[in-house]
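## tool: complex_structure
## caller: assistant
## args:
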Amino acid sequence: MLKIGIIGLGTVGSSVVKILKENKDIIRSRAGVEIVPAIGVARNLQKHQDLDIVLSDNADDVLEDDSIDMVVELIGGVERAYEIVKKALKKGKSVVTANKALLAYHRYELQEIANSQGFGFEASVAGGIPIIRSLREGLSANQIISIKGILNGTCNYMLTKMINEGVSFSEVLKEAQELGYAEVDPTFDIGGFDASHKLLILASIAYGIDAKPEDILIEGIEAINSDDIFFAKEFGYNIKLLAIAKKDGNKVELRVHPALIKKEQMIAKVDGVMNGVSVVGDFVGETLYYGAGAGGDATASAVVSDIISIARGESTPMLGFKKLITNELSLVEADLIETEYYIRMSVEDEVGVLSKISSIFTDYNISIDSFLQKSSKNSGRTSLLFSTHKCQERKIKEALEKIEKLHFVKDKPSMIRIED
Amino acid sequence: MLKIGIIGLGTVGSSVVKILKENKDIIRSRAGVEIVPAIGVARNLQKHQDLDIVLSDNADDVLEDDSIDMVVELIGGVERAYEIVKKALKKGKSVVTANKALLAYHRYELQEIANSQGFGFEASVAGGIPIIRSLREGLSANQIISIKGILNGTCNYMLTKMINEGVSFSEVLKEAQELGYAEVDPTFDIGGFDASHKLLILASIAYGIDAKPEDILIEGIEAINSDDIFFAKEFGYNIKLLAIAKKDGNKVELRVHPALIKKEQMIAKVDGVMNGVSVVGDFVGETLYYGAGAGGDATASAVVSDIISIARGESTPMLGFKKLITNELSLVEADLIETEYYIRMSVEDEVGVLSKISSIFTDYNISIDSFLQKSSKNSGRTSLLFSTHKCQERKIKEALEKIEKLHFVKDKPSMIRIED
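## result:
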């Protein structure tokens, strides 16, 4: 018998208790041992009376109890969760967590102390999709060339509605909030921060690279408007918030931003609240993983799969490396990233506009791939929509700063990166 | 150091040697130990001189050598491979195989003798896609409600061409043969047998159910014609060869056949030579796995991932069950399967045709969902295309036998199952 203490009884924690009870028989036959949710820790005990589990409002009732073999940490946040998990590991308990923020900041420290007793975190990235295992075990023969993930269901729901139904950003945000897909303060999701935490976890497994959210390029979807949607449809693109990790030689790019991707790509077909991760390995080519990235039951499915793996006695190295590689890989500075760009600007309709803008692009050696001009009926303004060939991020930024200063340019020009 | 003997040096075997050499450093850091392809066994040694590995034409040079820790079996076929793998396991060596036929017939016997020393077979299903691990580990918390797999790249390539480009079955078969996607004798692929082997492996992990290819419904794609393609497009379907495992109560359906599936479903978007597997679990909902299902490098990626897992000391139960479940699940007889059907028949154009056919459907309690009549310009014949509501396979078959006997019905009526 394996006794589990669950710290945090929100939607995921409650689902963990439910799965362990409802699927008890098949879980026992798969794990080889009975798995018992012995105690649940929550702030408000009244709320959880129906869960049929011993309740406590003190995490130490789990951590100090030597009969508890495993701690499931589901309180979220960084520092308190870190203290709890460290204490559990030091007491010799195994740990399962769904906490992406904890791992975004402390995965390497945790790897040091986790060692052999088992540390599962499948639920921290892409909910129910077994992407951690796939990357760490299924693709372990490969140098990972790239990872492109749709890792935030809120953003994907909103962008899908905007592109398929022409709904505006503010309308769809309101709708997502009403449906419970977006928080009252949606910044963490729509600003790309949630996806960046998950990206850092995947990048550690792929590349053994240490970085914090502060170190990488993170842009949200707030600035996407109907002109962008128009351009995307016109040129056969979809718009997705992508979390991207890419290796080129001994450099690794890590970035989160909205991206234009060709509609025919498999990852472009991941719509609505669903998550999807495309991984390209040097021998396997592209593989893609799709499923529910959030929700109590899907996330709890991943938590319980980790519990079962630990019960089975599996001992995969936490971040996939048995021996730390003397890591010659380093992070590319955001300004040095090279990609294709889509650029949007709003101008007053007057003679010579296009030639002045073009000459600035030429000065920065930026070569234009396609161009669309779209006049707005009432405002007397015109939207100019460009896409470029590959160029350096810094050059684009400098060119756009210069263009912004032209007297006929209204608002700040904006850009979306294009991913092949 | 872990020394490996590779028996079979075809495209996959050669790729295994190549990966172990080219990705040696990252593999060592992931596995925690150096992995050395020590000896390769092939019939024609001359062909493999460029591989930079000790060669032999005698499998016993691997099996009898106590310094070899692991055997990679890549000769294919059932009985000789079974003897080799048994001998290796009995000698205490771990085994990795890509051999779906071996597992379709002997997986339970192999599980008995494999026990603790490690037995990997990720490469036996869907090439480079880590579907074995995902099902056995990533989704282990779930009762598996259904598996729907596009597990044969040849069929998927052909069906994609037929539906997207209107190419006929015989033309696309010829083209697939020229491109090396289809064998000279393509029966094993296009008849659904290859997919059935893979399905049985997945079904063992999902349900612990024992069955052989002979026990299940297997239909190929040979009968699909341009009328079927026309109907599919008209009603928003795609046609895929699906390998299906489904649980309903204590009954399990296992079947391989072409199926009409709505274009919006994620699995319907898996095109060309690619494979895809959709798995629905009771808590996780739908997850889908996509990638290259064949080819030397992709398959070898899976083989090497198994080698690394065994080197890491993982000990997941081979078919996912630590304790055999006293399995109350049993196979549904093919005739008792219930689904929706699409039916095609060719008739001479005369009065009363439709009413006579309709009355037979009514006799068998088969209710029609949609109907299309399509006249052929020259032949004087008309194609009648129906789709039905859910009904039992036996009733459809009996009704079609009766319809076939009507004097105005030309050729044997045919049907394709519809999957929601």
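## assistant note: Chain B touches chain A through 66 residues (CB under 8 Å). The longest helix of chain B spans residues 296-311. Handing back to user.
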